[in-house]
Specification:
about 170 residues, about 15% helix, alpha/beta, three-stranded parallel beta sheet
Length: about 170
């Protein structure tokens, strides 16, 4: 195994450990009964997978497939996606959604995004530019970890929570 692979495996293991720790710590011992939920609806549009919340008519970006999009250098996340004659507002980029998208150089996020999950853009080695829209409230830990090409980023004054190691390994 190459040294770079070993270091990457150690980083991912550490990120997973920290995520699990904070999930357990934050969950506490509170137990509540919840109504049975149906499986969420997942759709894929232009290589981006979304999980839809039909009750609130919102969408969360859960995954980006670079496999069929290697030539794509810029990706625009829409403010809304449509499914079954309904529009869903994109409000979140989930943990790891764009991780290791090594060809993307620019990502444009809509003004509707309020939260970016941990490691959402981890190891996007070619990423030079990303906008953080005004209105975003939460940037979780290690969001841009090892985005070594990231040149500049403006944090809007609407950010209320910015967790640790957001820019760890960036130049």
């Amino acid at each position: 195994m190459k040294m770079k692979d070993k270091i990457y495996n150690i980083k991912i293991t550490a990120l997973l450990f920290l995520t699990a720790f904070f999930m357990v710590w934050g969950a506490g011992m509170q137990i509540t009964a919840e109504a049975e939920e149906t499986d969420p609806v997942e759709i894929t549009i232009d290589g981006i997978k979304y999980t839809l919340d039909e009750e609130n008519q919102t969408a969360k970006v859960t995954y980006y497939s670079e496999k069929d999009n290697e030539a794509v250098k810029e990706k625009v996340v829409p403010s809304e996606v449509s499914y079954a004659d309904k529009n869903y507002t994109v409000i979140e980029i989930r943990s790891g959604a764009f991780s290791m998208a090594s060809y993307l150089e620019k990502i444009v996020l809509p003004a509707t995004v309020r939260k970016i999950g941990s490691g959402a853009f981890i190891d996007c080695s070619a990423l030079r530019e990303i906008n953080l829209p005004k209105g975003i409230k939460t940037i979780e830990m290690s969001t841009f970890m090892d985005c070594v090409s990231l040149e500049e980023i403006v944090i809007p004054d609407t950010v209320e929570v910015m967790e640790s190691a957001v820019f760890l390994g960036c130049s």
